[in-house]
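Objective 1b: paired records.
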Amino acid sequence: KTSSVDADANYRRNSVSEENFDENVGGLELEKARRLSAIQAMRDAGTNPYPYRFDRTHTLAELRDKYGAMEAGSETEDRVEIAGRIMLKREQGKLIFGTVRDRSSDIQLFVSKAVIGDEGFADVANLDLGDWVGVHGIVMTTRKGELSIKVSRLELLSNAVRPLPNKWTGLTDTDTRFRQR
């Protein structure tokens, strides 16, 4: 039995780069190698990719209960800190919309380049689906009425090494899906 340190060292020696990609190695291994190299780059830059603590003020279900009846296009002055996993990310010019989910619910993130700055905006754009983040911001609703958090600061809490499963082309064999849940 090998230790996790030995396994990590073996993985780094045998990691796959785009230059030596062969047909036997799938895209999942290539994606895993890319994410592990990003984690190592964070460590080399002096940033801890797995911080020790983040204190949230609300769960997402509490936010939905408290602010669910806000009218479209309104903004509060209430500052909140939430934590969750990035499930969806859409970039539209100087805005990024994301969906964060915790165990109770999900909520939309509204990230503006003017509010968070160029460096923070680039950090948010480089996040992967499945990453756990801590968000500081104020509660608002978009013009369409979607309850959102206007992000003033975002912290990476845990970098996801493996990508989330694809929900459209996952397990396609119906028999296997029903017999081996």
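Objective 1b, second protein:
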Amino acid sequence: MNSKNVAVLGSTGSIGTQTLEIAREYKNINIVSLSAYSNTELLEKQAREFLPEVVCVVDEKKAAELKIRLADTDIKVTGGAEGLSDAATVKSADTVVTGVVGISGLKPTLDAIKEGKNIALANKETLVTGGHLVMKAAENYNVKILPVDSEHSAIFQSIQGMNSHREIKKILLTASGGPFYGKTADELKNITPEMALKHPNWNMGAKVTIDSSTLVNKGLEMIEAKWLFSVDIDDIKVLVHRQSVLHSAVEFTDNAVIAQLGAPDMKLPIQYALTYPERLPMHGNELDFIKYGSLTFDEPDTKTFYALELAKKAGKRGGNLPTVFNSADEAAVDLFLKGKISYPQISERIQYAMEKSAFKENPSLDEIFETDAFARETVYNLK
């Protein structure tokens, strides 16, 4: 593999730390910038190990503190949203891993694309809120968008060798079902944050784990897949697959189905995005079919977990409605984790915000952020 210079946005999170594990194994992956929201303790350790050109702390007060602590190095320390774009556009980088959570990943991703950087995309909200802007920019600046989410990586791997997107009949997007699979609406009323944070298969951040339990995450992934693979929302079918071994599949027009399988581990999709089109050896995550014995599939319960249907509606209509869906969820999950609303009220508040928001068919970047602010305000102010 040729040498890669990689910027890692969200280096202290799950995706970021695993990216750095891969960089430790393959010395021709050079880390040229790092960013974190506020975890300066871990970020300083990473910075001293990898000696990037730039590090960013979004929390500007903590950025000032880190600047003092790294004064004995040549590392440039930046802060805030502007600093995040600095980390994404550092001149030497050829690939940017976007491991930040939420709509905050949109602008630095667009900035990186305009500087000719390939994007290893783990921040699904980037395409959910600004897919029309991001994919057009990627085309204009001739950069690759390489999916890091395990499901989208599986789809990407399954379509290698395909002649045209017209060959795709249906995308089969798998979901673990989360910790509350099989529960009724009444049983969800007393769910606590501690219960919702116990995912059966994956170790993820709090926001993504909660979203997985409500099926919001799968809805966001549907919208992301729409943009990545040029398909209609109606051509994406969600399958509950409790074992998280078959990561997703593609059904082609001749009814052949090609799937990617692997252990429930994010290192493979991260590594493939960094080394594409090559496959390099990986140790410790071999798939043992005998251990699983059987793989099961089922329909999602969209009556109980109706946020998935809200996502389909948003993805199908497009415009700024996916931004409303995403931003209302971010606010509602924040309230739930703080104990201010119940678990079922997450989906209720998303629906309410979608009903109250004015529709914009082709929103600009400014209009996306205006929609984001409106959706959050609507959720936070609802009594």
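The radius of gyration is 20 Å. The CA atoms of residues 81 and 177 lie 34 Å apart.
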